[in-house]
Every structure is written in C-alpha cells, then in structure tokens.
Amino acid sequence: MPLIPEEPQIHEKAQGPRATPASGRTASTPRPVPGPRPAAPPRPGRPGPVRPAPPTQRASRDTAAATPGPSGPATPAATAAAPQIQLIPATPDGALDAAEEAVDLLLDSGRTPGDVLVITTGEAHPWAAHELSFGDTAYWAQHDAGDDVFYADAAVADRAASRAVVVVALNGGPEDAAVTALTVAHSRAGSLLIVCGDPQRINSVLGAGV
Q: Would you call 43 exposed, middle or buried from its count of C-beta atoms within 10 A (0-12, 13-18, 19+)?
C-alpha cells in the first residue's frame, strides 16, 4: 500500500525557532521514536588530534523544524519484526538536509549516535567524503566502532551492519541507486526506516516488494 505523508506536528522536544526549509524541500522531518536521552557523544566529523576539521554538516540542532507524525505501515498487517516507515517528501536538492534534520531530532529524542545509519544515493555526505579521504580502512573502522552516526553511499551500504534506525536520502543518482538504498535500508533498519525523497519514486520501489 503506498505511503501517504501526514500533516506536520510540532515535536515537543524540538521546540525553538523554526528553521527556514532547505531549497527545494517540500516537507519537514519525521518525529523520531522517543526515549530517555543519554549523554550523547560528539557527532561524526569531530576533529581529531591529527586530522583537519571536517566539513561543516549543517546548522545547530536548535534550528530543527517541526515534524510530521509517523507514516502508516507499508502493509496493513505489519509484523513486529518489520521497521516502522516514515516518509519525508523532498526534492533531490533538499533530501540531504531533510535527512540531517531527521538525525538531529532522533538524537534530541534519545537515540544514541551509534543507533543511526544514513544512506545517500547521490552526492556523498560531507562527513563520508572527508573520512574516506583518509582511506577505506579508516572509514570502515569508524563504522565497526559503532559509536557515531555513520554515513554511507548506496553503492557500499550493503557492507553496513544493522542499526536501530536507518535514514535514506534520495539526493540524486541513478534509479538503481534508489532501489539499492531502499532495499538495503529496509533490511538493516531494526525499528525505524526514514526515507527522504520523491514520494512517487519511494512508493514505486516499496510497492515492488522492498
């Protein structure tokens, strides 16, 4: 059954000034699964003792926008093992920003950074591009450590281990990249799958049996 985006709601833990939506983005971020908030370690991309500072990801979490309620399940009788699916309509240009806001709100609502995997289909996330500049081995070592949000391109996402939450940014790329990203994300998401992109494209892939 196709997913239908719901009307936005203000997340009670995301109060504060409303951010200006990213260019081309048509919807805001989802309400993450709430939970007790632990002391979260620094986000990916923090400068190390010998590495140069990574590219700035976005504005502070304090500028997070309002969030829509959970989308309905992919099928009328979703099993307990299937992840909840939330859809955030966004253009390719706005999908990465939408994914970043979703990650911020997940952390604000109690998720730890190690709970989250982000998969991109077009241009790599700045953090991934920065870390890959130090080599593939160092990049995947950070994945294996499991203590930070991890960003991966759809082409290599099948190497990633399962995490509680997987966020997909359909930020361009060929059609097969979207299929790969959604297929891998659905299989890796433990409890929640958030997809940022064109609803028609997402429903087409999800309706094909992902």
A: middle
CA separation (Å) from 84 to 65, 80, 130? Answer: 21, 9, 31
**Residues across the chain:** 210
**pTM for the structure as a whole:** 0.64
Q: Tokens for 77?
A: 């009788």
d(CA 170, CA 206): 13
CB contact at 8 A, 20 and 94:
no
Q: Locate 120 and state its tokens.
A: 């991109």
Q: What is the pLDDT along the chain (210 residues), one digit of tens a residue?
A: 455 555 444 444 444 444 444 444 444 445 544 444 444 444 554 444 344 444 444 433 333 333 444 444 444 444 457 899 999 999 999 999 999 999 999 999 999 999 999 999 999 999 999 999 999 999 999 999 999 999 999 999 999 999 999 999 999 999 899 999 999 999 999 999 999 999 988 888 777 555
Angle formed at CA 123 by CA 119 and CA 129, multiple of 5 degrees? 80
